[in-house]
Design a protein that fits this description.
Blueprint: E1 2-6, H1 10-13, E2 17-21, E3 23-29, E4 34-40, E5 44-49, E6 52-56, H2 60-75, E7 80-85, H3 90-95, E8 102-107, H4 110-119, H5 121-124, E9 133-137, H6 140-146, E10 151-157, H7 171-179, E11 181-190, H8 198-208, E12 214-220, E13 230-236, H9 246-256, H10 265-271, H11 276-282
Parallel strand pairs: 7-8, 7-10, 8-9, 10-11
Antiparallel strand pairs: 1-2, 3-4, 4-5, 5-6, 11-13, 12-13
Helix pairs in contact: 9-10
Bound molecules: S-adenosylmethionine (SAM).
Length: 283
Amino acid sequence: MSWFEEALYVRTCGYRQGFLVEREVARLKTEFQEMAIFESPFFGRVLALDGIVQTTERDEFVYHEMMAHVPLLAHGGARDVLIIGGGDGGVLREVLRHPVERATLVEIDGGVVDFCRRHMPGLSAGAFDDPRTELLIVDGIRYVAETTRRFDLIIIDSTDPVGPGEGLFTDAFYADCKTHLNPGGLIVTQSGVPFFQPDELRTTVRRLRPLFADVACYLIAVPTYVGGLMALGWGSDDPALRGVGEEVLAERQRAAGIATRYYAPAVHRAAFRLPPFVAELLA
Ligand code: SAM
């Protein structure tokens, strides 16, 4: 047995997390990144990209449920959804539990899709075979710059702003996303762990503000994204979407027949209540 040590915060915070590795399942280097999947006793299979933990079998439900169900149940009528990144298929799986007509997943690295389908099939759970899925292996930045399509919801399920994910945090990219939203549409972004990465949230909010009437974030607790709370950014021109009440959310969840382990209407509402140290980043 050995240890996998995630060094994401070693340089900035002098802190690291470690997983006991029972066995390495697979490793692959693509032109974009180095992928590894290993088996750990408590978290099950763990996916790391360039040494940074992306998801684990044990806690993936938190991130994937909250990335998909919060915006979809708030919107209530999304038919066309765009996911940028997310090649593991976890967000796609949750999006497809809603009555959407099409879910387009734009992932820069086809290796991630193949690798996860093969070695962590529970993440996508058949989502790539769903007839509503459109999988495009292309840079998401280029896709939103060139497509003529419009979406009800755009989910940015990115890596951190290093390597191929860097451009997914820029003004130009967010502006392109905005032009491809239908009226009443919204965007949700992976905006890091505010305790360790305050600039990720601060910058995202600063960039979304000129584009959307209502910019906010909501918080989720994913055990392996160390640092306590992860922020998901939110941009929409309709402030009412953020105010949808628990009863309506519960009714929509019931109607769609979606059973969840982390998402709940009360959790949805509470996730937008921010501790002052996070609220300050949005000020
Ligand atoms: N869903 C996961 C989680 O639980 O956090 C992890 C995020 S997912 C693996 C992030 C994906 O974004 C990676 O597969 C990466 O290849 C993809 N990505 C990075 N930059 C991209 C870009 N410019 N366009 C499209 N996809 C990109």
